[in-house]
């Protein structure tokens, strides 16, 4: 049970301290609202939640990497910049993937 406690603490830390994570939670909420509005199928819900989980997990991983690198190396270092850029690219990939999944799911409901 303690592991759940720590996991929720980490989730709420990201929610309270990371603006990008809050934006992505709002986007995820919008996607879910649209799914409810259009009455998407169970399979579409499963795919949508996988994509949204991927997105939020990527942002948490990005935050973890940035925090770790800032804690480990205080001064500017080119290697740290590359690591952070790659981590940001991971979030960008997850964002684009989630957006495409949402568009593919909602497309047929909008253009019936």
Which terms would index this structure?
mainly alpha, 89% helix, Helix Hairpins, single chain, 112 residues
Question: Can you walk through the features of this model?
Answer:
The chain has 112 residues and is mainly α. The chain has a single domain, classed as Helix Hairpins (Orthogonal Bundle), CATH 1.10.287. The chain has helices spanning 2-17, 19-38, 42-72, 78-110. α2 (19-38) packs antiparallel against α3 (42-72) and α3 runs antiparallel to α4 (78-110). The protein is elongated and about 55 Å long. It starts with a helix and ends with a helix.
Topology readout:
Elements: H1 2-17, H2 19-38, H3 42-72, H4 78-110
Helix pairs in contact: 1-2, 2-3, 2-4, 3-4
Active site: 59
GO cellular component, one term: plasma membrane
Membrane topology: Multi-pass membrane protein
The helix/strand class is: mainly alpha
* CATH-defined topology: Helix Hairpins
Uncertain runs are none
Estimate the helix proportion, in percent: over 70%
User: What is the mean pLDDT?
Assistant: 96
Alpha-carbon Rg, integer:
17 Å
Q: What is the percentage of strand-forming residues?
A: under 5%
**Main beta sheet strand tally, sense and closure:** none
What is the level-2 CATH architecture name? Orthogonal Bundle
The CATH first-level class comes to Mainly Alpha
Shape: elongated
Binding site for a divalent metal cation: 18, 66
GO biological process, one term: phospholipid biosynthetic process
Keywords: ATP-binding, Cell membrane, Kinase, Lipid biosynthesis, Lipid metabolism, Magnesium, Membrane, Metal-binding, Nucleotide-binding, Phospholipid biosynthesis, Phospholipid metabolism, Transferase, Transmembrane, Transmembrane helix
Active site: 59 (proton acceptor)
